[in-house]
Specification:
By secondary structure, the protein is α/β, with parallel strands linked by helices. Among the domains are: about 190 residues, Spore Coat Polysaccharide Biosynthesis Protein SpsA, Chain A (Alpha-Beta Complex); about 120 residues, Rossmann fold (3-Layer(aba) Sandwich); about 120 residues, no CATH class. The protein is built from 20 helices and 18 strands. α5 packs parallel to α10, α9 packs antiparallel against α10 and α10 packs across α11.
Length: about 650
């Protein structure tokens, strides 16, 4: 057998599906096998592989064994002369494997091979070629010198920025997303080191290839798309800890003496500095805009107070110091809380949410005002003036924020990009249907055919050779490629031609999802029926938790009167405590086969009641419960939870 393709998967079902479709095309004409090792995914990945890819050899682990160990499981049963370790969040061109085999056959000194990788926007990924992270190279990378001088032969060695991206080169380190290796090399140097759970194993393996007397090559004639989906975010403390621990393991294994001590010093400095930076960044990301809002509101309320005192009350000393020291901060707190629960701080920023939050906050302030003692009750006109000022000032701040960050802000709840679909009329219609079912707003301009097409066909814009001109004519913002009608090679060619200003998505054949990525640092975007769900939004998750607490408060106050309604008062008290402390939610998914019934949908806490409870005594099968759960998640609103609680009040103590 010529080739064994090994893919380790963990909870990226849709990306895995697209990768396997591209691999299926790429292995045509090659004596090859495909092995998927699933690390105990909870998103139905195993069922997907069994149903749609029966030719794939599947290993379904019962726990997450880590990247290295899972790959070794695949290597152990593989039979190929060559072994490819491939990430599930990749898409390979149709000729990629044949090109790699031809190159490796022609270069017997090659132990391993990497290819040119681009992200979902068509950007070249610099990790396609790297050098060994020696103490000096690591120092330049950690302290930003490699980013400042990427083309320097001294400072730019980490990503070898001084080497031409479109020329074949001998390099030191390959990316773990695509490692094409000779079997005899693996047998000689050993498989992946299972000490590395995640990160660092590709560096270690690449270095051992060189120590074994072989060469690593960067081969740009073969290309793949790598969406860069990861289990940890690069700005998080968890990523800093895991990544630099992996680097420390590498240093202990391969360096000795003064070099090892220097590397350990650099790594320890990096851990503390990057951890401090990550902590500062995460805090700043959360607090910067609210603090700016608070400062802007306080300054505005001070100016309003001065003008109101002089023009309306006729005395600059009309308001006592307590007004600015106590009352105004209380007003600002209520505005900020209302904006938070309205989604005014969620990314991407939408000014509509801010205005909505200010309006609700002003109503809350007016309500609180009625309960204040007379000594703290100042002019209601000041509250109204403050609300009007807050709406304009905070919206202006967000537009300034967008201008500084280079991000376009809109007043609308969601932008609706202009899209074209590249593919046949049938596939274009299927893409539109998926967008509609997933609740994705768009301005569909038309489809561009890859085959001769009747020009009178509705929404037909032209053929594939006119894509660039059509994009400029209609000011297109997003392109969806139908991979059933266009090759991955052609998709990558057009992405590179049109540039990263556009957003690109791919509709794999026979799938219910459209996949892409608008940032090289994100795990990708999904337009899928069971992914774009209302219950997934941060605002709805906050509102759901707030409703849980509100119901807790109501049931506590009303318990002396309503206790006789509840079926099991004792169990109700237990449930009440569980919901109060966030371990349960009042309304959750309907259980399936005795489980929580949520493994295939966005995770929420186990519910006390569920949408299935409205069926009264009807016996529902699992298929019906799944449909109810999907509808609940897709169309979620706080009102639906409140309605279910009201209708099933007596059942709050029965679960």
């Amino acid at each position: 057998m010529r080739l064994s393709v090994i893919i380790v998967n963990y909870n990226v079902k849709y990306f895995l599906e697209q990768a396997l479709y591209s691999v299926r095309k790429a292995v045509q004409g090659i004596d090859a096998e495909v092995i998927v090792v699933d690390n105990n995914s909870s998103d139905n990945s195993v069922e997907l592989v069994r149903e749609k890819f029966p030719e794939v050899i599947l290993i379904a682990n019962k726990e997450n064994t880590g990247f290295s160990k899972a790959n070794n499981q695949g290597i152990e049963i593989s039979k190929g002369e060559y072994v490819l370790l491939l990430n599930p969040d990749t898409v390979v061109e149709e000729e990629t494997f044949k090109q790699c085999l031809t190159f490796m056959d022609a270069h017997p000194d090659a132990g391993a091979l990497g290819v040119k990788m681009v992200d979902g926007k068509g950007h070249f990924l610099p990790e396609s070629k790297r050098s060994l992270p020696t103490p000096a190279v690591s120092f330049y990378k950690i302290f930003g010198l490699s980013n400042l001088f990427p083309r320097s032969r001294t400072f730019g060695r980490y990503h070898l920025g001084y080497l031409d991206d479109d020329q074949t080169h001998e390099i030191e380190v390959l990316a773990g997303a695509f490692m094409f290796m000779r079997r005899e090399t693996l047998d000689k140097i050993g498989w992946l080191d299972e000490t590395f759970f995640m990160y660092g194993e590709d560096i270690d393996l690449s270095y051992r290839v060189i120590l074994g007397g072989y060469k690593n090559y960067y081969f740009p004639e073969a290309r793949i798309i790598h969406y860069k989906g990861e289990s940890t975010k690069k700005g998080s403390l968890n990523y800093v800890r895991i990544f630099y621990q992996a680097m420390a393991i590498f240093a202990q294994k391969h360096f000795s003496g003064s070099q090892a001590r220097l590397y350990a010093l650099v790594i320890n400095m990096a851990i503390y500095l990057r951890a401090l930076f990550a902590l500062f960044s995460s805090v700043a990301k959360v607090l910067t805009l609210p603090l700016l809002d608070a400062g802007l509101l306080f300054g505005g309320m001070y100016v309003i107070k001065e003008l109101w005192s002089e023009e309306i009350k006729g005395s600059l000393s009309y308001y006592p110091p307590e007004y600015m020291q106590l009352i105004v901060p209380l007003y600002i707190l209520l505005w900020l809380v209302a904006i938070y629960y309205s989604g005014g701080f969620d990314r991407p920023l939408r000014t509509y949410r801010t205005v909505r939050g200010v309006f609700v906050g002003t109503l809350l302030i007016a309500a609180v005002y009625a309960f204040l003692n007379d000594e703290y009750r100042f002019s209601r006109g000041m509250i109204l003036a403050g609300g009007i000022y807050a709406s304009f000032a905070l919206v202006a701040l967000r537009y300034a924020w967008g201008a500084i960050s280079g991000r376009k802000l809109t007043f609308a709840e969601q932008e609706t990009p202009r899209i074209v679909i590249v593919g046949s009329k049938a596939e274009a219609d299927r893409a539109l249907s998926l967008l509609s079912q997933a609740g994705v707003d768009n301005r569909y301009i038309g489809f561009i055919s890859t085959l001769p097409q009747d020009s009178s066909e509705e929404h037909y814009l032209g053929d594939i050779n006119q894509l660039q001109a059509i994009r400029k004519l209609y000011e297109i913002e997003e392109v969806i490629f139908c991979s059933a009608d266009i090759t991955i090679k052609s998709i990558i060619d057009h992405m590179l031609l049109m540039g990263p200003e556009l957003n690109y998505k791919i509709l794999p054949e026979n799938t219910p999802s459209i996949i892409g990525s608008n940032s090289k640092n994100s795990a990708g975007d999904l337009y899928a029926i069971d992914v774009n769900l209302a219950i997934s939004t941060p605002m709805n998750r906050r509102n759901k938790r707030m409703l849980d607490l509100t119901v807790c408060l109501f049931t506590l106050v009303s318990y002396p009167v309503t206790a006789f309604i509840i079926a099991d008062p004792g169990r109700f008290i237990r449930n009440w405590w569980l919901v109060l402390f966030g371990r349960r939610t009042w309304v959750g998914y309907a259980p399936i086969n005795g489980g929580k019934g949520q493994y295939w949908l966005p995770s929420i806490k186990q519910g006390i009641i569920s949408p299935a409870d409205k069926a009264n005594n009807l016996k529902l099968d699992d298929a019906t419960r799944r449909r109810l759960n999907l509808l609940y998640a897709k169309d979620y609103t706080v009102y639906k939870d409140l309605k279910l609680v009201w209708q099933n009040y007596k059942c709050l103590g029965t679960c």
